Amino acid sequence: MGKPLKIAIGVHGRFHAFGLAAGLLKLGHDVTVFTNYPAFIAARFGIPAQRVRGFAMHGVVMRLADRLRLFERMPGFDGFLHGWFGSWLARRLTAERWDATYTWSSVSKEYLECERVARARLVARGSTHIRRQWQLLHEEEMRTGCVISKPSEAIMQREEAEYALADAVIVLSSFSRQTFLEAGLPPEKVRLMVSAVHVADFAATPEVVQARRQRILSGEPLRVLSVGTFSHRKGALDLVAMAGALPADQFQFRFVGSVADEAAVLAEKSRGRIEFIPRVPQKELREHYEWADIFVLPSIEEGLAAVLPQAAAAGLLVLATPNSGAADVIQEGVTGWIMAVRDVAAFTQRLNWIACHRLEMAALAESCSQLTSRDWQTAADDFVRCCERAHDTYHCCT
Question: Are residues 126 and 269 in the same domain?
Fold first, then answer.
């Protein structure tokens, strides 16, 4: 494939699509993003408005359905919404020729069933294989006694059809890739493109690093941060258990983000031990990373949590599960530690160790801030290589 490439990105939201598009544009590629975001909002994330084709009505209906909890009340409504966007996307993509198309799982089927208009057709899967996702969430449902939103059988079948039709499935972490291999997909069809971050948006200044170091050495309570959605999928039960097991005079816990309905009661019960701050715009997250000393993410199921590269860029030591995609972000014992999923004891033991080894902690905090985080231009380079391999594989087999 020659450069620059003509690339279409189709996504029913934002996810990592906007970061990747910005990285590809910096490399000089001809990129068009098809999304349910209005173009003026996409522009806030570094995508020129003229590069965006928006299906805003779909985005409005999707947000309204979520607010009214229609996905829970009306089985199959998610399938309708995905098919609606998928049909719109197929019409737009097949009107042109592309070097590569990169379309999100669950909204790609209609396009992939059309006559080929791209030299490489790649599907993005931001989470684990959808059957493994269902299994992990079902296990958590049994453990917590709460109803957790899971993909329907129709959506699972839809995604599996997309995996089969695509030239390659792109995943964001080694953990996610392994779930596809375990499900029987051939290794050459599952490509890894580790997620990234706009480093400048989160990188800690020397003043922040020095203040963090002094705070750690002073013996003040260590500040433990978690960001995202407070939900059982993200390990809410384990985060609360950690906060309850650790002494309040040594640890302060803060959670920044929305609270899922399923975990609302749990959040209310833990407010005396965890400070909850409602979801803030991404540009305001920086001040919370600057507040913190340690980042914790006990996720049950993810592809690669976007907050992990953010925390790493902010120079925080990270404690997370392999299920969060942490193995592709953390250097064990250097920038953090990976704990087994649902193992509260492992998290609390490591946090207690940190509290008792503040000199080592301060040194690690300083060294973390000096490491270079992965940016979207680097990820875009990897994506282009995925396109080239997918193109070569397809044409060797046809």
Answer: no
Indicate if 315 and 220 belong to the same structural domain: yes
Q: How far apart are CA 85 and CA 105, in angstroms?
A: 12
Helices 206-218 and 358-368, axial angle in degrees (round to 10): 170
Please return the burial class of 376, using the count of CB atoms within 10 Å of its CB with bins 0-12, 13-18 and 19+.
buried
Whether residues 353 and 268 share a domain: the answer is: yes
Q: Given a cut of 80, is residue 11 above it in pLDDT?
A: yes
> What gap in Å lies between CA 203 and CA 226, rounded to an integer?
17
Enter the tokens of residue 165: 């039709």
What is the total count of domains within the chain? 2
The helix (run of H) or strand (run of E) holding residue 266 is helix 264-269
SS3 of residue 301 by DSSP: coil
Of 375, 238, 210, 199, the C-alpha closest to 320 is 238
The predicted-structure confidence for 159-194, as pLDDT tens digits, reads as follows 999 999 999 999 999 999 999 999 999 999 999 999
Q: Is residue 1 part of a domain?
A: no
Higher pLDDT, 107 or 63: 107
**In angstroms, rounded to a whole number, what is the distance separating the alpha carbons of residues 331 and 337?**
7
CA distance 307 to 356: 27
List pLDDT tens digits, range 261-300.
999 999 999 999 999 999 999 889 999 999 999 999 999 9
Residue 4 preceded by cis peptide, ω within 30: yes
- Token reading at 323: 């299920």
| 250 plus 222 within the same structural domain | yes
Task: Give the Cα separation of 111 and 12 in Å (integer).
Answer: 14
**Mean of pLDDT values over 226-243:** 98
The per-residue pLDDT for 390 is: 85
Computed from CA positions of residues 201, 203, 204, 205, in that sequence, does the dihedral angle turn out positive or negative? negative
Domain extent for 290:
200-368
Residue 309 shares a structural domain with residue 341:
yes
- Does one domain contain both 174 and 208? no
| Amino acid (1-letter code) at residue 183 | A
Q: Give the tens place of pLDDT for each residue, 324-349.
A: 999 999 999 999 999 999 999 999 99
Same domain, 283 and 174: no
| Position 391 pLDDT exceeds 80 | no
pLDDT given for residue 44 in this prediction: 86
3-state secondary structure of 315: coil
Question: How far are the Cα atoms of 191, 255, 302 from residue 173, in angstroms, in the given order?
Answer: 10, 24, 9
